[in-house]
């Protein structure tokens, strides 16, 4: 529970930053895109984050992983009723979305590992109760 409550303080998972040298450096996110093989996230024309561990997709929030939820939700949208622009980019921290992606990968991996350890503990306890 603690790692989920404090996800913003999590260490950033060291994803590989593949930068397009033909485009100016730019952290601005319009719409994140997950590669079909789920090994990369295209942040924008300048930056793609690669080497996403497949295990992070094992932590599910309903029918999708936490990373897939972030990719779906962190996009610029204009509310059709109010006309309000919803923009995940922060002027005070231009790397905020990239940082969040790296932290969510870390939290997801740690959650999967904790669940495995808990499952092993429960299995051992069940075996002890049988004997």
SSE order and pairing:
Layout: H1 2-5, E1 16-19, E2 33-34, E3 40-42, E4 47-50, E5 60-61, E6 64-65, H2 66-73, E7 77-78, E8 85-86, H3 96-130
Antiparallel strand pairs: 1-4, 2-3, 3-4, 5-6, 7-8
Report on the structure:
The chain is an alpha+beta fold. The protein has one domain (2-130). The protein is built from three helices and eight strands, in the order αββββββαββα. The chain has helices spanning 2-5, 66-73, 96-130, and strands at 16-19, 33-34, 40-42, 47-50, 60-61, 64-65, 77-78, 85-86. The strands form three sheets. Strands 1-4-3-2 form a four-stranded antiparallel β-sheet, covered by helices on one side. A two-stranded antiparallel sheet has the order 5-6. Strand 5 and strand 6 form a beta hairpin. Helix 2 runs antiparallel to helix 3 (96-130). It is globular, with a radius of gyration of 18 Å. The model has no long low-confidence stretch (mean pLDDT 90).
């Amino acid at each position: 529970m603690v790692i989920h409550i404090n996800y913003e303080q999590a260490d950033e998972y060291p994803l590989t930053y593949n930068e397009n040298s033909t485009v100016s450096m730019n952290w601005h996110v319009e719409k994140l895109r997950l590669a079909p093989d789920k090994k990369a996230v295209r942040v924008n024309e300048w930056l793609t984050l690669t080497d996403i561990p497949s295990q992070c997709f094992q932590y599910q929030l309903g029918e999708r992983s936490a990373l897939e939820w972030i990719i779906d939700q962190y996009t610029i949208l204009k509310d059709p009723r109010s006309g309000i622009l919803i923009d995940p980019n922060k002027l005070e921290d231009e790397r905020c979305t990239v940082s969040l992606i790296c932290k969510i990968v870390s939290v997801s991996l740690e959650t999967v590992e904790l669940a495995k350890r808990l499952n092993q503990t429960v299995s051992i306890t069940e075996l002890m109760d049988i004997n």
